[in-house]
Amino acid sequence: MIEFGITDHLEGPHDCPSAQVYEEIAKQTELADRLGFQYAWFAEHHAHAHAGHLPAPLLLAQHLAGRTRQIRLGTAIICLNLHHPLAVAEQCAVADILMKGRSAFGFGSGSTPEEFGLFGLPVAEDAQRHARFADALRLIQAAWRGRISEAEGVPFAVPAHAPLPLPAADLPSRCWLAVNSLAAARIAGALRFNMLFSHLRTPAQYREYRAAYHQAGGAGRVAANRPVHVAKDDDTAFARAEPALRILWKRFRAEGKIPADAAEPRRIEDLCAHPINFIVGGPERVAMQLADLHSQAPYDVANLEVRWDGVDVDAVADCMNLLASSVRPKLTSMLGR
């Protein structure tokens, strides 16, 4: 059965109180829990990079474990190259124990120059960045096993020792890597992590990454990410989503994801195209698009982003209710699961 998760980047205007953003996401996560969503992931961003208000997603995940009952809570992602991996390993171990196994931690190497600059760190070339990322993940896995060897500690000047606390033995199998390149896919496969795909990537890229992942020995789960807005019918959904789509399109152009000289599309459907890859419509249309994505690049978790600047909180709640009550059963039927 396809599972449903939500990811949120805790976005909001710079002058919006962070407490307001956090509480909005807390209520969204409580609703997701009641509706039977399997995952809620929170992104790490510093100093309002990508409009985000949350530099410490692990803290939010742990807090929300006390406000929910069954949903798995995690990070998508912790930017591992901004942190010392031993500190991350210890913090995740503590959080997993306190969350009683409901954690689903995601890690990525990080690549936003502005965020690296805040910590006095350069953004390394891809090969160096991925090498450090892999070393950090190996050290984290060793810490969770209860013994860091001298060799595992060398890249970070960590002496051989037996870390505490020890998380549940199955924690590594519940963890995910953000995969946005073939190199990251190979790391995820070699180290036996699950894979989190970005909505910025195409189904063809998903297939390439999955092949590289399996070739490297990976056999875990795949979460495919897409922004989604569903309403009672197609017309209502497009009307509600259009302000968010236009805001997002302009932001992507400013960030260089869309060419600077590109003219803003007039048709709403064109705004949904790559690289935004936004799924909009009534329940039938959204289910069909998710089924089509699955047919092109199979996934285990539909990792959906439902909250966007330009869509009010009531419309987000309506979207989530329809995803659970209508889209999920339609998608299950279409996939024969």
List the helices and strands and how they pair.
Blueprint: E1 3-8, H1 18-35, E2 39-42, H2 57-65, E3 72-79, H3 85-98, E4 103-108, H4 113-118, H5 126-145, H6 150-153, E5 176-179, H7 182-190, E6 194-197, H8 203-215, E7 222-230, H9 234-254, H10 268-271, E8 279-281, H11 283-296, E9 301-305, H12 313-335
Parallel strand pairs: 1-2, 1-9, 2-3, 3-4, 4-5, 5-6, 6-7, 7-8, 7-9
Helix pairs in contact: 1-12, 3-5, 7-8, 11-12
Brief digest:
By secondary structure, this protein is an alpha/beta fold. The protein contains twelve helices and nine strands. 46% of the residues lie in helices and 15% in strands.
Sheet with the most strands, sense and barrel status:
8 strands, parallel, barrel
Q: Name the CATH superfamily assignment of the largest domain.
A: Luciferase-like domain
**Spatial order of the strands in the main sheet?**
1-2-3-4-5-6-7-9
Proportion of residues in β-strands:
5-15%
Which CATH first-tier class of the largest domain would you pick? Alpha Beta
Q: What does this protein look like?
A:
The chain is of the alpha/beta class and 337 residues long. The chain folds into two domains: 1-174, Alpha-Beta Barrel (TIM Barrel), CATH 3.20.20.30; 226-296 and 305-337, no CATH class. Helix content is 46%, strand content 15%. The chain contains twelve helices and nine strands. The chain has an eight-stranded parallel barrel, surrounded by eight helices. Strand 5, helix 7 (182-190) and strand 6 (194-197) form a beta-alpha-beta unit. Helix 3 (85-98) packs across helix 5 (126-145). The termini are close together.
